[in-house]
Amino acid sequence: MAFKRVALSALLLASVSACGGQNDQGQQQQQAGPPQVSVITVQPQAVTLTTTLPGRTAAFETSEVRPQVNGLIVERLFTEGDSVRRGQPLFRIDQQPYLAAVASARASLARARAAIASSAALQRRYGELVKINAISRQEYDNAITSAQQAQADVAAQQAALRSAQIDLERTTVRAPISGRIGRAQSTTGALVTSGQTNPLTTIQRLDPIYVDVPQSSADLLRLRQSIAAGELSRGGGAARVRLRLEDGSLYPIEGKLQFTDVTVDPTTGTQTIRAIFQNPRGLLLPGMYVRAELVEGTERNGILVPQRAVQRNESGQATAMVVGRDNKVEPRILTTDRTIGEDWLVTAGLKPGDRVIVEGGGGMLRPGMPVSPKPWNPNAAPAGTGAPGAPGQPQGKGQPQGQPQGQGQGQPAQAGQPQAQPNGQAQAK
Questions:
Q1: Residue boundaries of the structural domains of the chain
Q2: Over the stretch 362-378, which tens digit does the pLDDT of each residue have?
Q3: How does DSSP assign 22-73, residue by residue?
């Protein structure tokens, strides 16, 4: 029985100590006042909406150089990788067969011209004889036909000579466009044929240069509907495109939106957007991977909230703490569209004039809790270690700097100190 009395006395003593500690802690919090929090007042503003999409560069013009006559390559007249001009000689094909063809065509033309003189003279003589009925009318008609055929033969031989000369000119393969030339696919001594499959080389015009960007057709449809509904406006800046290179650097020259393809790729559900960029230094090469930043439009009444003021609840929904009536904390569930810099673009859950808590409260903010709001200074050091409404740190840890802790003391109380004093008081009793 004596042991039971001792145990019961110890239990009562511990209960008294705990109650005393809680009362003292509550009195300290009441004396300290509501915690300070930094807030921003939500105001609608014009927000430029952009989207960043991956893409590939493509040459402005591409020409695969092929021979138009048959023969052996006897000379290469360019340096691989150089810039070439339109009409510049690139290859020379053996000319001897084509020189002979030109000479033969010229001889045939001379023979035709000689024949036309003879047939014309015969037509004149038969014209005099038919008048005195010395020859039949049929013989005269035959003479006229022969003279006309001789004239036609001259025209045919002239065309044959021109064709032979064209083939002779084509033995020198020239650049069809200006641009950068690639490596030679055929070397000196190779036999080439007219219309062969493999090109001799490829020329690409790189200034300006295209950037092809695939974008989801669903996103483009949503964008068109937003513009049609008046939610977005598109000014002259909508045609501008900025480019980020493979190493993460920003291309110094802005491009222009060229067009959007009218066909949706059935396998990927995307449409190709083409932009054009000036490329005076040749920094962009065909096939490079880039990221293009496209301007979608401007939302007139956009609401931006710092990312640090937005958390996620257990369901994954975006939430924020708002200072409501009587300076009490109210939770809000937000609908966010995208990040713009260091802010979230909020499309639902907030209205103009709402005061959103950015920092403060030591991570101990709860709905209905009174707070002392002050404007948030983004350039100031964080006033507390915990985000608004973040779970779980003991009272006294994570409090805003400079907030009183304990009974009128300017320094934060040590952890466990409130419990130590009531225990001592109870033991003294």
A1: 49-59+204-301, 69-94+171-198, 95-169
A2: 678 888 888 888 888 87
A3: HHHHHHHHHHH-SPEEEEEE---EEEEEEEEEEEEEEEEEEEEE--SS-EEE
